[in-house]
Amino acid sequence: MAYMKKELGLLTLLTLPFISSADWLDVNMPVGVTDISEEVFGLHMLMFWIMIAIGVVVFGVLFYAMWKYRRSNNKTAADFEENHKLEIAWTVVPTIILILMALPASSLLKKMYDHEAEEGGIDIQVIGWQWKWQYKYLDEKVGDKPLSFFSNLTTPSDQYETNQATKGENYLLEVDEEVVVPINTPIRFLITSNDVIHSWYMSDFAVKQDAIPGFINVAKTTINEPGVYRGNCTELCGERHAYMPVVVRAVKQDEYQDWLQSKKDAAEQVAFLTEKDWTLAELMEQGEEIYNTRCAACHQMNGAGIPGFYPALAGSDLVLYDKPKHIEILMEGVRGSQMQSFAEQLNEVEMASVITFTRQSWGNDRAGDGEIVIPKDIVEYKQKDS
Amino acid sequence: MSAVVESHDHHHGPKKGLLRWLFTTNHKDIGTLYLWFSFLMFLTGGAMAMGIRAELFEPGLQLMDPIRYNQLVTMHGLIMIFGGVMPAFVGLANWLIPMQIGAPDMALPRMNNLSFWLLPAAFTILLSTAFMEGGMPGFGWTFYAPLSTNYPNIAYFVFAIHIMGISSIMGSINVIVTIMNMRAPGLSLMKMPLFVWSWLITAYLLIAVMPVLAGAVTMLLMDAYFGTSFFDAAGGGDPVLFQHIFWFFGHPEVYIMILPAFGITSHIISTFSRKPLFGHSSMVYAMVSIAVLSFVVWAHHMFTVGMPLVAELFFMWATMLIAIPTGVKVFNWVATIFKGSITYETPMLFAIAFVVLFTIGGFSGLMLAITPADFQYHDTYFVVAHFHYVLVPGAVFSIMAAVYYWLPKWTGNMYDEKMGKLHFWLSFIGVNVTFFPQHFVGLAGMPRRYADYALQFAEWNAVSSIGAFLFGLSQLLFLYIIVKAVMAGKKATPEVWDGARGLEWTVDSPAPYHTFEVPPKITEQTKL
């Protein structure tokens, strides 16, 4: 992947290897990997060539007239102001062209609006959060709940914030948990949001549906080719709008079944871990990792927050002295703010370790009561709740 | 004797000093104020755009964090629309409408003064958020709820929008009253120059939709501070309702920013082709059709919100219909040029670039109307390329064309033609280098309003940024040319342009402080 290094900048622009890089040719819509996306591509190209044809005729006449009737070539101008036949023609002909464009577009749209569930199909609920996606496999149960996970950006911040590290091939298009789906199976994405409006965009499937709180939008797709497909959020959703990619891994049916089983097994492991005795060091290590991927975007790496937007955690009275409230905020979120509930996003172990991490970092351990939180505390909180 | 002359002058001439500008009720002074204000805003919004393009020069965050980036994107949009393009057109309206219809001034001169001076107040409020904790609005100029309802300093934004709206509504009332009541005897509506026509229609659009915008921001304010849930799903509200209200304002707003450009272009093309405009009345009907259609196409901005199939089909078809009257206008301009005797002074260059590049923006607009394909285009750089093609080489080029065209009438001096042509070519190249590659990255899937992007888009973004710097910096040349022409230059004749039509060319250059105190008589022979 050609990428312009900061130091080279403009100089690189003028060099041949840069110009011959393949990305220069990446100038059109992808054909995609579904029947619908291929049809959309076809429609797009049809429209494109119609526009080119109209452009050639209109601009052709314009440029010809500009050249032919320049003053040095034509001293006296004509003074006609109307030509009814011509005017009728250039109203009627475009109308006919438009009707011819509307017909295939309308029938394809009708096809894309088939949202019915199909025999053997699967339903995946997609929930937009600031700034990550949650996926719930509605047909697959873990205990009494559907299989669910969050998909967070994994590109390390030193690749984009400080630009110290070399950017990887899938820069900003890589996540910790990909959505794994089977090929040749009708999949319905049921798209909604937990906070502001997001939009789930996967160009290779020709799917773009807004994720709106209080609404469930449906996008149905059947993927023909196995592969990893990468997309984005396409509705401005706040600060880290550019940092919540969509990654779908399409696999054969048996691989999909294996993957489902491994996800279910992993979920059962967590219950066992809450019983374990955790040391401070273990909690801190896991807590730091979670803090950096889930919390640092707003509260910053140094816990200082961003004044006016995100409160500081370092030196905050709540973090220093109020352990029960601290747990409650992470579990329930803060209504009317961008602080969301992490109850579904983090399991008991992760929750305890990230709270412990914030209570022990940036001098908070010396300044406050220094109480740590263990997974059992979270389990108790949940039991009290129910 | 001399004392008598002085007091005579005083009575008819402008006041001296700064108070002249503060208290003026003269349409020419107010037009000048509007134009300079919009130029200042154009440079401010342009500087923000260059900040945006500098950040996007390469992947990664180099110059600013995403909060700042979103603020620049938002303020760039708000400033260019409400501070740049709209006031520039109002400035032109103030200067030209009375002179083109043979009226001594606008009908409501004191209100005219107030509607201008509200604007600096509104933008001071809006920009003051830059110095506050939480900073400027960062939710995009479309301020979709519920992102905007939870944003800091939103009350300042809402208040600023209200003031801008009041200013626009007052300006529109003034335009309508002036055109309806103060035309010179014999100047029937269908004889009226097209710039005046385009503004009459625009003024009605403004009066129709500005209150809708005011409603939208008020509901937002209520949601943010008074505990209502218009747009909050958790309280039984509807976030999509916001988008319907916003775009019911927003789409006519788009035509508010282009109809006066149609008027300007028609005058300039006719003048430099030395030929009457082809199809004067069909131009009027086309503008009226576009204005009426603008009220029934708003949801094409919302194809991905999950509307029912019938709604999607209706808005697709209605949007496609706009291509017909717009096509008629383009064909009429081409027919005006046809068999003319054409010269290519700076205003003509800008006007022809307008026709060509606006049409390219129209092509991408028609593609965007095709709903199935729009699922791919929506909210990508393809959309950014589309609306910048209709707004920059569209609306902004028409304003530049107008400035070059009427500047000799305003100042009495010819501008520097060589410099003007240089400014045109730098702008023309800059605009295309900036926005054409955005079609490519958009089709390849790059979403808009991204502070940072995947590596595959790096090359064309770098090109786009270089173009943006070229375009942005060339505007300093524009400033230089204008200042130079205001100070000195070859004296302009009353007619200025060989082949110019219209009443404004019958008065001296520079136009006296008061014109048409006695209305001119319009006869069959008057060249309009």
TrEMBL record, chain A:
Boundaries of every Cytochrome oxidase subunit II transmembrane region profile domain copy: 21-116
Taxonomic placement: Bacteria, Pseudomonadati, Pseudomonadota, Gammaproteobacteria, SAR86 cluster
Pfam families: COX2, COX2_TM, Cytochrome_CBB3
Organism of this sequence: SAR86 cluster bacterium
Major subcellular site: membrane
PANTHER family (alphabetical): CYTOCHROME C OXIDASE SUBUNIT 2, CYTOCHROME C OXIDASE, SUBUNIT II
Domain Cytochrome c: 282-362
Swiss-Prot/TrEMBL keywords: Copper, Electron transport, Heme, Iron, Membrane, Metal-binding, Oxidoreductase, Respiratory chain, Translocase, Transmembrane, Transmembrane helix, Transport
Transmembrane segments: 46-67, 88-109
GO MF entry, a single one: copper ion binding
Protein family: Belongs to the cytochrome c oxidase subunit 2 family.
Classification via InterPro entries: CcO_II (IPR045187), CcO_II-like_C (IPR002429), Copper_CuA (IPR001505), Cupredoxin (IPR008972), Cyt_c-like_dom (IPR009056), Cyt_c-like_dom_sf (IPR036909), Cyt_c_oxidase_su2 (IPR014222), Cyt_c_oxidase_su2_TM_dom (IPR011759)
Membrane topology annotation: Multi-pass membrane protein
PROSITE patterns: COX2 (PS00078), COX2_CUA (PS50857), COX2_TM (PS50999), CYTC (PS51007)
Functional summary from the UniProt entry: Subunits I and II form the functional core of the enzyme complex. Electrons originating in cytochrome c are transferred via heme a and Cu(A) to the binuclear center formed by heme a3 and Cu(B).
Ranges for domain Cytochrome oxidase subunit II copper A binding: 119-262
UniProt remark on cofactor binding: Binds a copper A center.
Protein name: Cytochrome c oxidase subunit 2
First-level EC class: translocase
GO cellular component, one term: plasma membrane
UniProt record, GO biological process: ATP synthesis coupled electron transport
Cofactor annotation: Cu cation
UniProtKB/TrEMBL annotation, chain B:
Cellular component, GO, one term: plasma membrane
Pathway this chain belongs to: Energy metabolism; oxidative phosphorylation
GO terms of molecular function: cytochrome-c oxidase activity; heme binding; metal ion binding; oxidoreductase activity
First-level EC class: translocase
E.C. designation(s): 7.1.1.9
Cellular compartment(s): Cell membrane; Membrane
Principal subcellular localization: membrane
InterPro entries: Cyt_c_oxase-like_su1_dom, Cyt_c_oxase-like_su1_sf, Cyt_C_Oxase_1, Cyt_c_Oxase_su1_BS, Cyt_c_oxase_su1_dom, Cyt_c_oxidase_su1_bac
GO term, biological process aspect, one: respiratory electron transport chain
Keywords of the record: Cell membrane, Copper, Electron transport, Heme, Iron, Membrane, Metal-binding, Oxidoreductase, Respiratory chain, Translocase, Transmembrane, Transmembrane helix, Transport
Reaction(s) the record says it catalyses: 4 Fe(II)-[cytochrome c] + O2 + 8 H(+)(in) = 4 Fe(III)-[cytochrome c] + 2 H2O + 4 H(+)(out)
Domain Cytochrome oxidase subunit I profile: 15-523
Pfam families linked: COX1
Membrane topology note: Multi-pass membrane protein
Cell membrane recorded as keyword: yes
Regions crossing the membrane: 33-52, 72-93, 114-134, 154-182, 194-222, 284-303, 315-335, 347-370, 382-407, 419-440, 460-483
Gene3D superfamilies linked to this entry: Cytochrome c oxidase-like, subunit I domain (1.20.210.10)
Function noted in UniProt: Cytochrome c oxidase is the component of the respiratory chain that catalyzes the reduction of oxygen to water. Subunits 1-3 form the functional core of the enzyme complex. CO I is the catalytic subunit of the enzyme. Electrons originating in cytochrome c are transferred via the copper A center of subunit 2 and heme A of subunit 1 to the bimetallic center formed by heme A3 and copper B.
Family to which this protein belongs: Belongs to the heme-copper respiratory oxidase family.
Protein name: Cytochrome c oxidase subunit 1
Organism: SAR86 cluster bacterium
